[in-house]
Amino acid sequence: MNRTVRDRNDRHPKPVKRIELLEKYPKSRLILTILLIVVGVGALGYSLIAYLTADTGWTTIEAASSELNCSDELIFQYHIGTGELSATAEKKAVSALYTETTAKAYQLFHTSMLFDGVKNLYYINQHPNEEIVVDEVLYKAFSLLEKYGNRMIYLAPIYIQYNNLFGCNDDAETVEFDPYQNEEMAAYFAELSAFARNEHAVQIELLGENRIKLFVSEEYLAYASEEGISDFIDFYWMANAFIVDYIADTMKDNGFVSGSISSYDGFVRNLDDFSSSEYAFNLFNRVGNVVHQAGIMRYNQTMSIVFLRDYPANSLDWQHYYEFQNGVVRTAYIDVTDGFSKSAVHNLVAYAAEHSCAEILMQVIPVYIADFFDAKNLSLLTRQGIYAVYGEEHTIYYNEPDLKLTDLYDQDGVRYQAEYIGGTVS
Q: pLDDT digits over 354-366, tens only?
């Protein structure tokens, strides 16, 4: 089989001038109305969160270095002037720390480039069955995956083929990489998924004191050699959940707590324990091939948010989506049981005050990446303080009794309602 491997350039997206997926086939493409509410900060492009305030102290922090970093996938808003430092000194300090953390995250989660003195994912993949001392950030990430029994990082060879799929220019090219169309590729994915699920075939062994070993069995090594496989682990689309958490935690540890960081692909952390002002998170819902901004979720406390969706919504989504001419979409949400792209519901927002983005993600993945959607599984997560919002047709469902929902979509003859289990609110 011809298994093309394109230059993925994983943590450094190519420049995108327009949203190809929404313009190439205008009659069949999803019609996205992405109206991000940003007051006092301005339009933020692909930001999923806005802070509603007129205080001019709020500003978007930029990474100040030309060094490679992942800031082009993030938006970091900070309220300058709330700390003990002068506004100028505070902004300089916050910017410097943001620059440092985004560069470090870029290096650690990179799968196709080596950096001096950094034992990143690329290095680990090149040194199977060797003991390696990794940065604490990676060790914590591996530990969290093990805690929740999540084995999706071991789908790395399958992710390469999905990158090839997402890089296709037309539907005819996709047949080579899409298991839904290609039986040979489906069989190949079944073989790779079997390895990924088997801890006796591949496993990150946690040895303590930030020491790990990527165990790969002789059988898998032989198979990988025959198939030209060099990547055994990859956080892929999950990486930004861990990166947002790392940056947020680092900011808080250094006393910078008046801000909010979000990634283009739906991971959000705000830093302050309680705010007298109000945060707003835009809720979307897909009905057929149309996506509405269905309403707004409002809150004023520490929150971690995970937003999963089965449709492209911004200029960076070419990395993780392919939309066919008939409106069908393939996503990067891959089921570890068979290697197929799956989304049980069009969009799901899960959030919690006491959990990180990565912790929330680990617990909602089994609900979202599934053949069928079962809302009862979301109800079980409320016991852990994790709540959810999702849409079906023109109704927004939620399971937090005190959730504040406003600005429900109502135009062009389409009116949304919000429904809590056991009742309906307007």
A: 999 999 999 999 9
What pLDDT digit, counting tens, does each position of 241-280 carry? 999 999 999 999 999 999 999 999 999 999 987 666 688 9
Residues 6+ apart with CB under 8 A from 423: none
pLDDT at position 263: 97
Nearest to 9 by CA among 167, 230, 117, 151: 167
List CB contacts of 298: < 8 A, sequence separation 6 or more.
Answer: 278, 279, 280, 281, 404, 405, 406
Sequence spans of domains, the chain: 31-103+238-310+344-425, 111-234
CA–centroid distance for 108 within its chain: 16
Distance CA 163, CA 236 (A): 10
Q: What local confidence, expressed as pLDDT, does residue 81 receive?
A: 84
Question: Helices H, strands E: what count in the chain?
Answer: 11, 20
Residue range 31-103+238-310+344-425, CATH number? 3.10.520
Which pLDDT score, from 0 to 100, does residue 31 have?
42
